[in-house]
Design goal:
mainly alpha
């Protein structure tokens, strides 16, 4: 509604969160995977005869991924709303196939050869298979995410159906869908870890993360499509366009919710692979610092204690971020009510709202409220390492990774499913707009927003930040 001063803040927030924010998240994974692979390659170079190639390979692959993404975008073509999702996926597949061809040509020419820490002799074909495994993982995570969040699939439609009974059943089914969606993605990531490790050891896992993110240029464009379509619908509504226009933008927005969820799936999967590579870097640095091999034994109380603390961190972190959203939303509501009360003619549409104040509330709150969660991610690993031991810190890293991975998948998929359940009802199902079902679905969507747009994506950052801080601090903490 053009009279509501918070609407512009919502439009700005879509761009900040789902374009710039997810872009920063995926870019961090992109750079993190490259750096982690280069560090592992430098360590392995002494055990083989491919020193420079192992260090430079992730950079070469990233460059080829950029070229593949540029070419792949020309495959994105659609004439009707129903063809949009297929067109976006077609572009992703096209860039992936182009990248596979370029990667095979490059790795074959480099004639790689090295021996892993576990005695496995690795050649070029095994490294290529690791890259291919990571790329396939990204595509499969996208399809799993689509199944659980698309308005045309049964999980989302079951949430919409249960909305006929009210908000409680909507929330129960949304939580259940989000929780149930974790198994497929986790199994895929586990299979990728095992396969890439069997091909090329820990270097294989790390280079698989590079392969998964190589076509980031296009996958990030697919992710950004969501908020663009969402804002187009908002503009159509505010401008008083014909109902047919809003109907088209709603159809595009529903696809956008799914593509945004796919982008979050990419971020989660890549965070897991990157974090594992960074964890190996941590173990290597600790071993060099203390002058002996490092073994993290699960029978050791220190490791178990660190594991438990690490498993708790994603829950505490999510609590802090969601409470921050709640406090900021409360201030926003108070400001909107104040303007309706104090600006003459605003409710009648004869005066303009002060949208800048609402934008300012969100901006200031987002910066201020992230201080404590940000400090948590930095202080906890340093404190555990300084006042406890490297074993406890190792357990903390693994606990944060295992707990945070599952929770991030759950939150991203539950939020996307709630959003598209609302869109499904707005399309005319179960009473359509204004019905009891719609009001219940709006409640679910409101809960889902901090799930999929705040806490879920932030967990990816938490996982990688815990690893990076541990790697950087280890030489100082354990010397």
């Amino acid at each position: 509604d053009p009279r509501n001063p918070a609407v512009i803040a919502d439009n700005v927030g879509d761009n900040v969160g789902d374009v710039a924010g997810m872009g920063a998240d995926l870019f961090e994974s992109y750079v993190g995977s490259i750096i982690a692979t280069m560090a592992l390659g430098a360590g392995l170079a002494a055990q083989g005869d491919s020193a420079k190639e192992l260090v430079m390979l992730p950079m070469y692959l990233a460059a080829m991924g950029i070229v593949a993404s540029i070419i792949g975008k020309y495959a994105v073509r659609a004439k009707k709303e129903k063809e949009v999702h297929g067109a976006l996926f077609k572009g992703l597949l096209a860039s992936s196939f182009i990248f596979v061809g370029l990667a095979y040509f490059l790795i074959d020419r480099l004639e790689l050869h090295f021996i892993t820490r576990h005695g496995l002799e690795v050649h070029s074909d095994q490294v290529f298979l690791s890259v291919l495994t990571g790329l396939v993982l990204g595509v499969l995570i996208g399809k799993v995410t689509e199944f659980y969040t698309s308005e045309h699939r049964s999980p989302t439609q079951s949430i919409a159906k249960q909305s006929q009974s009210g908000s409680a059943t909507n929330l129960i089914f949304g939580l259940a869908v989000g929780m149930g969606s974790t198994w497929a993605t986790v199994v895929l990531i586990a299979l990728c870890l095992m396969l890439s490790f069997s091909f090329a050891g820990l270097y294989g896992i790390s280079i698989a993360a590079v392969g998964m993110l190589a076509t980031l240029g296009l996958s990030l464009g697919v992710d950004a499509y969501g908020p663009v379509a969402d804002n187009a619908g908002g503009i159509a509504q505010m401008a008083g366009c014909a109902p047919a226009v809003r109907k088209r933008t709603d159809a595009l927005d529903a696809v956008g919710n799914t593509t945004a969820a796919i982008g979050k799936g990419f971020a989660i999967g890549s965070a897991a692979l990157t974090a594992l590579a960074l964890f190996q870097n941590y173990v290597d640095i600790v071993a060099r610092t203390i002058g002996k091999p490092v073994e993290l034994n699960l029978l050791t109380p220190e490791v178990i204690a660190g594991l438990m603390i690490g498993s708790m961190l994603p829950y505490l972190f999510s609590s802090l971020t969601m409470l921050a959203v709640g406090r900021a939303a409360n201030r926003m509501v108070e400001e909107v009510r104040r303007q309706f009360k104090e600006i003459p003619g605003l409710l009648e549409g004869k005066a303009l709202p002060d949208s800048q104040r609402c934008v300012r509330i969100s901006t200031k709150a987002s910066i201020r409220e992230m201080v404590v969660p940000g400090l948590l991610a930095v202080i906890v690993p340093v404190a555990v390492g300084a006042f406890w031991s490297y074993s406890a810190l190792g357990g903390l890293i693994v606990g944060t990774l295992s707990s945070g991975l599952v929770m991030a998948i759950f939150m991203a998929n539950a939020g996307g499913a709630w959003d598209n359940a609302k869109k499904y009802i707005e399309g005319g199902m179960h009473g359509g707009k204004g019905s009891v079902s719609h009001m219940a679905a709006v409640v679910g969507d409101t809960v889902g927003d901090p799930f999929k747009d705040t806490a879920g994506p932030a967990l990816n950052i938490l996982i990688k930040l815990i690893c990076i801080v541990s790697v950087v601090a280890a030489p100082i903490l354990f010397r």
